[in-house]
Amino acid sequence: xxxxxxxxxxxxxxxxxxxxxxxxxxxxxxxxxxxxxxxxxxxxxxxxxxxxxxxxxxxxxxxxxxxxxxxxxxxxxxxxxxxxxxxxxxxxxxxxxxxxxxxxxxxxxxxxxxxxxxxxxxxxxxxxxxxxxxxxxxxxxxxxxxxxxxxxxxxxxxxxxxxxxxxxxxxxxxxxxxxxxxxxxxxxxxxxxxxxxxxxxxxxxxxxxxxxxxxxxxxxxxxxxxxxxxxxxxxxxxxxxxxxxxxxxxxxxxxxxxxxxxxxxxxxxxxxxxxxxxxxxxxxxxxxxxxxxxxxxxxxxxxxxxxxxxxxxxxxxxxxxxxxxxxxxxxxxxxxxxxxxxxxxxxxxxxxxxxxxxxxxxxxxxxxxxxxxxxxxxxxxxxxxxxxxxxxxxxxxxxxxxxxxxxxxxxxxxxxxxxxxxxxxxxxxxxxxxxxxx
Length: 438
What we know:
The protein has 438 residues and is of the alpha+beta class.
């Protein structure tokens, strides 16, 4: 379903000044945008400190330096204004051909301060479309989100509860006078998570229109970036005496990163024990978890079952019997987890523990809600909703709400040292296979 919004006049009748070849409204917000981009592009600490003095905010010099580090600076491509305190803008990173869309806001009161500045990466070929929302548009978005939750949320009772609460808050005027999509998305997301404490629930918004072609280009760009970042395998190394250590914070797309995964596992194949560090892992693609697990089992192994409520179908997840290079068999595996480990990071830990292929060390994980889907509401809004539940064929359990409980409970900061001690004990004959307990 798609909606049309009543747009506020975006090019207000304000005097303008030029930033390169782009006309910027000579409003407080326009002036702040020009000063902000000058501070980022300069790389000069004195200029950055001067900007922060003129436009007080929560930003620090380090924050501005981070913008510069990531982007290489920006070229301003387009500015649109809806009122003196807000500007929408489109910029391009100098370091690479990447465009971003954003919004900057300053305070209404004087002295004027910088309230916020945000920018989001646009898919290649997408069209900048900085909409504003009226009452009818807000109601349509919230009601659509409620309907999706009722229809698709994996837990029928929870879906109805969330939908009812959203409608109650809409009727009570809690979303009234929110003119910007990013604000509405942030507010609805906070409300949903306040009701059921599920970090998967999210209303997303973007200031652009995508096409099938631009979405495909975005996927290609994400794959290139993943490969350039070594598919997020942050550490692949040997720790004394001969323990393999693999740390990654994202489960990358296996279509782009299977080669990198194989190289990492083969680098560590001759280790006497393997430690997989997921303490900072926030999830990603499930297929990568299945691929990595395939290196740890000799034969084809049934890892998990995923049930989807909408079509009442259960999908089985299995290891791949043949993988490039050598498998890591007959030797202990330790997985480090923490209260930050989430989503696919939890699922990977959960299945290895249930299959008794790994000893989990650290803290109980977040307790995510299982598999998720991205349900479009219209061209700008998308609802992220839990639609499935993952259970282990070994014990028929899941980790929703409870999290994955480690075999060895220690503070996350101590988990690596404890796992190394367990590996040393195992190396001296205490135990082989899943690992030893202290």
